Automatic annotation (TrEMBL):
Annotated keywords: Glycogen biosynthesis, Glycosyltransferase, Transferase
Keyword check for Transferase: yes
Species of origin: Deinococcus budaensis
Pathway this chain belongs to: Glycan biosynthesis; glycogen biosynthesis
Name by which UniProt lists this protein: Glycogen synthase
Classification of source organism: Bacteria, Thermotogati, Deinococcota, Deinococci, Deinococcales
CDD domains: GT5_Glycogen_synthase_DULL1-like
NCBIfam families reported for this sequence: glgA (TIGR02095)
């Protein structure tokens, strides 16, 4: 079986967050499982960004269809790593620094429209095309119209790839009937997330709880009616993300003082305190995008009381107002804030903190809580999405309401529990023993692909 993943980023070549992490880990595990009955040959297609962290070998150069007729000359490159073939499509709109820009809908329409002609030119015809998030929605639509089997994963429903339909429909290369409310039209806009939902043979999300949540008005981002229909048709399910076990391993992590169990954490906590000049109080860590989704405003509003019990170390970037608020706290002797991304510091926070706060308003899956658990740092999380599926109540500390006081109550319980060494050690030990490897999710996806590939071919039809 041959599987093709289509995504806007893939670690370590391009990455802005969790999507890149998933595409850096899942295909490699699927390729490693090829020797099993459900194994697969795996290819990944992604844009060839100007700042790509790698040098692909050029394997094709020519012209591809675009909104103005043809795009050309364009090229494709190839890298092979861990049994996976990575293809990179170099289009004019991607020849500048950075991954994402204000014209992304137009750029990823060009990418999605050109994907199948490129694959045809390279002689690639997978058994299943698996698209990821809105940037791959148009590729899924074109694959469906070509009679290919398709899967589509929603990593975050909030980001949908919308643009005024009157301007954007010419970018897509789709027939007129695709722009109805049953198709890509959404309140007068083109919606590329909806393209994937409507055209895919099966839709997954990155946790079972999030798969249920997005069928409700609270979490459905205006698409809950469509998602309810997919659920009733048996075309929507949740498959929990995994964690890269080699990249996140406290026993071999070069950025920390390695340890194998709960007793080894103390040295990392001391090092983190020394790094930021903090006192002997226990450590609360945060590594996060600074965004409303992540509940960082709840954390900031809780800081006046949190610092009575905890040193607070925050690493993250994003919303300027949240950044400014945290910067204003950086003078406090128990608060350390580092703006932006810093991979090595993230590892030190996971290893050195006692608890790890994730007060998310919604969380499709989340990787940070899995990393924290693997590093023996107990998560304090809101009961939503993948946080429910990964943080057992006898390990971490969960709270229901998206309110500062609820977060504080959970942190107060954590502080009281820390004073009971046996109880605390038991929670840490149970957390570090949890299995978040990609093996089980990879097998679930391979089983899904096998079911899809076994379906009898149908004539491509209008959106269901």
């Amino acid at each position: 079986m041959h599987v093709l993943h289509v995504a806007s980023e893939v670690f370590p070549y391009s990455r802005s967050g969790g999507l890149g992490d998933v595409l850096g880990a899942l295909p490699a595990v699927q390729a490693r499982l090829e020797g099993e009955s459900l194994g697969a040959e795996v290819t990944v297609l992604s844009p060839w960004y100007a700042g790509l962290a790698g040098t692909p070998r050029e394997v094709w150069r020519g012209e591809l269809p675009g909104s103005g007729g043809t795009l050309g000359p364009v090229r494709a490159g190839e890298l092979r790593e861990g049994g996976v073939r990575f293809l990179f499509l170099d289009l004019p709109g991607f020849a500048r620094p950075g991954l994402y820009h204000d014209d992304d809908v137009e750029r990823f329409c060009a990418f999605g429209r050109a994907a199948l002609p490129l694959l045809s030119a390279l002689g690639v015809r997978p058994d299943v095309l698996h698209g990821h998030d809105w940037q791959a929605g148009l590729a899924v639509a074109h694959a469906h119209l070509a009679g290919w089997r398709t899967a589509y994963t929603v990593h975050n429903l909030q980001y949908q790839g919308r643009w005024t339909l009157a301007e954007a429909r010419g970018w897509t290369g789709l027939p007129d009937w695709a722009f109805s409310p049953e198709g890509l039209e959404f309140h007068g806009d083109l919606n590329l997330m909806k393209a994937g939902l409507v055209f895919a043979d099966h839709v997954t999300t990155v946790s079972p709880t999030y798969a249920r949540e997005i069928t409700t008005p609270q979490y459905g981002e205006g698409l809950d009616g469509l998602l309810v229909r997919l659920t009733l048709e048996g075309r929507l399910s949740g498959i929990l993300n995994g964690l890269d076990q080699e990249r996140w391993d406290p026993r071999r992590d070069p950025d920390i003082r390695p340890y194998a169990d709960a007793t080894g954490k103390a040295a990392n906590g001391g090092a983190l305190r020394s790094e930021f000049g903090l006192d002997a109080a226990p450590l609360l860590g945060v590594v996060s995008r600074l965004a409303d989704q992540k509940g960082m405003d709840l954390l900031i509003r809780a800081l006046p009381e949190l610092v009575q019990d905890w040193n607070v170390v925050v690493l993250g970037g994003g919303d300027p107002l949240l950044t400014a608020a945290l910067t204003g706290w950086a003078h406090h002797p128990r608060v350390a804030f580092v703006a932006g991304l810093n991979e090595a510091l993230a590892h030190r926070i996971y290893a050195g903190a006692d608890i790890f706060a994730m007060p998310s308003r919604f969380e499709p899956c989340g990787l940070s809580q899995m990393i924290a658990l693997r590093y023996g740092t107990l998560p304090v999380v809101r009961e939503t999405g993948g946080l429910v599926d990964t943080v057992p109540p006898d390990v971490g500390f969960r709270f229901a309401a998206a309110e500062p006081e609820a977060l504080l109550d959970a942190c107060r319980l954590a502080r009281r529990t820390l004073d009971d060494p046996a109880e605390w050690r038991g929670r840490v030990t149970r957390g570090m023993a949890l299995d978040f490897s990609w093996d089980n999710p990879a097998r679930h996806y391979l089983e899904l692909y096998a079911r899809l590939a076994g379906l009898s071919a149908e004539t491509p039809a209008a959106p269901r």
